[in-house]
Specification:
Rossmann fold, 11-stranded mixed sheet, BirA Bifunctional Protein, domain 2, Translation Initiation Factor IF3, 3 domains, 5-stranded mixed sheet, alpha+beta, 23 strands, 474 residues
Length: 474
């Protein structure tokens, strides 16, 4: 393979969409499927997903949420039981014909309905509550016109938690706690900063009483929803008969929550941290945190490889790669591992061997540092910690710089075109938001914020105490 085939043919700042597509393919994260709208997740990306799963399973364990699995196929009649839910997901449903069931069966776009049918059989008493389950699965949403791996596909992987509580207070608490856990997970593991808040009436989950969200912001001036948490109220409980006998011997309907994030997080990581050399992985989520590249010459090859092997053992805890391939030159290897985002590269050649040193190279900044071989484990650990911190701080600085405000529609449109999230006074009303969406070419509120000081709605002119954070989005 020629060297230039490994490199990117477009700069991130020139054409983010094409840059993203090339990084996804050349960093071997995903490939396109022969079926339109679907993707093949390759091992490099699946390892990231497994790390996310591993870390979030710790949260689930702490919250006493157990993992389970429910069917992929859902009777069409289940969706029709909850009117808003049915209306919200109708355009995205894909069906197979149920030969024995006497009705169409939908491929799950989300699992509230099929799960709550089971909950109606399993929950009997207040002693069964809170009832908390999560499932890791795939979902199908037949909506995508253009495939964008990890960001927009007809099938994606996710987790969805579904809980039942005795009262509204406990459901609200769970909704808020879980969106907070999402923000913490994504910030600490993926080094992706987000802003958190409540969804508007127009943007909330179909059938939910309240929806909380975390939103990241991409370099092209679009927001990316990274996770949502919902207080579903008692709507689903009533139509699916999820009820319990309370302490007062009266039968009551449960209060329910659901929450989820998906492989879209991998797309956020790529876009937020990647550069013109390719993928940049935060150390905490990188499967291989270090690569050692020996500089080989015939007369010193044996000694250099020997010392490289010793260093590799010293760095074993970082799942270190020793790239001892002799058919490729060092420069080619540098480009390859930079493309794949390995956080730290360690170079060692005959001259380094003479001085008992190696060269440590950071993927995030490209900075090089000559260090003693005896100190390699300490220096690598120090670099990894600093890379994780630097990636988050750099992204947070960008996010903060993109939040602005506007007083009228002209100013709103101008700032949206410059790639901003724009705060405006906005009535929390579906009709008002529809007008704003139409007049901004598709921008929507990412969150709604209650404020003490009232202002005039940017569209209706009414006095309101709500700010909408308006942005284009994926």
């Amino acid at each position: 393979m020629e060297k230039d085939e490994k490199g990117l043919k477009v700069k991130k700042s020139d054409d983010l969409s094409e840059w993203y597509t090339q990084v996804v393919q050349k960093a071997e994260l995903a490939d396109y499927s022969p079926i339109k709208g679907f993707m093949v997740i390759r091992p490099n990306a699946y390892a990231i997903w497994e790390k996310i799963q591993e870390e979030f399973n710790k949260v689930l364990d702490k919250k006493k949420v157990r993992n389970a699995y429910f069917p992929l196929l859902i009777p069409d009649s289940f969706f029709k039981k909850e009117a808003k839910h049915a209306e919200g997901f109708a355009p995205e449903l894909a069906y197979v014909e149920g030969r024995e069931e006497g009705e169409k069966l939908a491929l799950r776009p989300t699992s509230e309905t099929i799960i709550y049918d089971s909950y109606s059989k399993w929950i009997r008493s207040w002693r069964d509550l809170p009832f908390k389950l999560n499932q890791w699965c795939n979902v199908i949403r037949w909506e995508v016109k253009q495939t964008k791996p990890f960001l927009r596909t007809r099938e994606f992987l996710w987790q969805e938690g579904h809980c039942v509580f005795e009262n509204e207070k406990d459901a609200d608490k769970d909704m808020n706690e879980m969106i907070g856990e999402y923000q913490k997970l994504i910030g600490e593991l993926l080094a992706v900063p987000t802003f958190i808040g409540r969804k508007s009436e127009k943007e909330k989950f179909p059938g939910a009483q309240t929806t909380m969200t975390i939103e990241a912001f991409m370099p092209d001036g679009k927001a990316l929803q990274c996770g949502t948490s919902h207080n579903l109220g008692q709507g689903f409980a009533k139509v699916f008969n999820v009820k319990f006998l309370d302490k007062d011997e009266k039968e009551k309907y449960g209060w329910q929550t659901s929450w989820g994030f998906s492989t879209r997080l991998i797309g956020a990581l790529i876009m937020v941290h990647g550069d013109d050399k390719g993928l940049v992985l935060p150390p905490k989520v990188a499967e291989n945190k270090v690569v050692i590249v020996p500089i080989l010459f015939e007369d010193s090859k044996k000694k250099v490889l020997g010392k490289a092997g010793v260093i590799a053992k010293k760095l074993k805890e970082y799942n270190c790669i020793l790239d001892d391939r002799e058919e490729y030159k060092p420069g080619y290897k540098f480009n390859e591992w930079e493309m794949k985002g390995i956080p730290v590269r360690v170079e060692i050649g005959p001259k380094d061997l003479e001085k008992d040193t190696v060269v440590l190279v950071r993927r995030d900044t490209g900075d090089k540092k000559v260090i003693k071989i005896n100190d390699v484990d300490k220096e690598v650990d120090k670099a990894l910690v600093d890379i994780q911190r630097n990636l988050f701080e750099k992204a947070k600085k960008f996010l903060d710089s993109r939040i602005d405000s506007a007083k009228d529609m002209v100013e709103l449109n101008k700032k949206l075109k410059s790639g901003k999230i724009v705060k405006v006074y906005m009535k929390n009303d579906v009709g008002v938001e529809d007008l704003i969406k139409d007049e901004t070419g598709g921008a929507t509120s990412r969150i709604i914020e209650e404020v003490e000081e009232a202002g005039n709605c940017i569209k209706s002119g009414e006095k309101v105490n709500t700010l909408g954070y308006i942005s284009k989005s994926y």
